[in-house]
# Entry
Amino acid sequence: MSKGLLIQYVVLGLIVAASVLVVLRKLAPQLTSRWLAAASIRLSRSDSRLLKALGRRLQPKQGTGDCSDGCSTCGACGPKKPVAASTESRAPGSSGQARTAVEPMPLHFRSRSR
# Structure
């Protein structure tokens, strides 16, 4: 095998690996964040200053739920909004009754009849 062909294979392999990483970051952001966090923890525990700096750099960003943090609109990142369980009253003059928040209904499972 010639040197030129070997270099071509190495460059092509690097391009494919980079493409796979980009696709993984796009399609599975939580999975790749966990991988980055695990790698960051392992590197931060080493004795080398270079590896510690690399570990700090690999720490995943925390989602703020803001549109400018770079994540998609899938809703998988950022803080979850709490469900409001307060009661609201209607405007005076409508029906005069207070409207309460809808409480979750329990699930009832039935066994399959054969």
Summary: Residues 3-27 form the longest helix (25 residues). Strands lie at 88-89, 98-99. The longest strand covers residues 88-89.
